[in-house]
Amino acid sequence: MIGAAWWWLGAPVALPPSPLALGEKLYCVSYAPFRGNQDPLVEGTYVEPAQIDQDLALLSRYTDCVRTYSTQEGLDKVPEIARHYGLKVFQGLWLSGEAEKNRHDIATTIKLAQQFPDVIRAVIVGNEVLLRGEMSTTELMATIREVKSQIAEPVTYADVWEFWLRYADIQNSVDFVTIHILPYWEDFPLPASLAAAHVDAIRKRVAAAIPDKEIVIGEIGWPSAGRMREGARPSPSNQARVIRNAGPR
């Protein structure tokens, strides 16, 4: 019985077909350039422009846009390199509980938005800073308004969907709402077979709660490896299934 179970778990699984038509590209993908021992949590980490260039050259074959999370660690070079490959950028501005770093990222992001208006589609002021408890909603909204007043691009904030329902007033400071829906990581994880229906239901729930703003899904995905979380099993086939069923529309 044990041998049969291991055989079943290791049996080849046919991947589902791509949701994209021939020659079609993904609208946008999240991009973090870190390889090997590179860690953004380690002070002094820096990614060379040549490495970013390699990444964007590859990604340009599959997408027309990348989303970044910060201008630190060398990521301030992304818009310039992206322009070379015809890519657009959802420019991330990292916010945390460190005021000095916040000021630097704010200033750099504003400068990039002013310098690359043809590349930067929108600016994401903060990523899950409320989830991490590192800023108050008052501080966050003030920061969003500060950035918005100095750039021409649309401005948003990104967080897991529950926090948009909890702090819906943030909608008054942004041009559109960016939510993260990650069925594997939620408090009540779901199997891959139910992920697409969950994503659809959650987007409709947020849209009903915040009817006057466009709702953009900023993060969605499924791990290809790792531990099981109840019925949520990481695997390449499940990852492909979730992206196929819940991804591009």
Largest sheet: 7 strands, parallel
**CATH arch. level architecture of the largest domain:** Alpha-Beta Barrel
Please estimate the helix content: 25-40%
Helix count equals 8
Shape: globular
The first-level CATH class name of the largest domain: Alpha Beta
State the separation between the terminal residues, measured CA to CA. Answer: 42 Å
Q: What order do the SSEs take from the amino end to the carboxyl end, as H and E?
A: HEHEHEHEHEHEHEH
Proportion of strand residues:
5-15%
The average pLDDT is 91
> Segments where pLDDT lies below 50 for 5+ residues?
none
Number of separate domains: 2
Q: What is CATH's topology name of the largest domain?
A: TIM Barrel
The strands making up the biggest β-sheet line up spatially as: 1-2-3-4-5-6-7
Q: Give the tally of β-strands.
A: 7
CATH superfamily of the largest domain: Glycosidases
Question: What is the radius of gyration?
Answer: 19 Å
Structural class: alpha/beta
Structural description of this entry:
The chain folds into 2 domains: 23-180, TIM Barrel; 184-249, no CATH class. 37% of the residues lie in helices and 14% in strands. The protein is built from 8 helices and 7 strands. A 7-stranded parallel sheet has the order 1-2-3-4-5-6-7. Helix 2 links the parallel strand 1 (29-30) and strand 2. Helix 7 (192-209) runs parallel beside helix 8 (236-246).
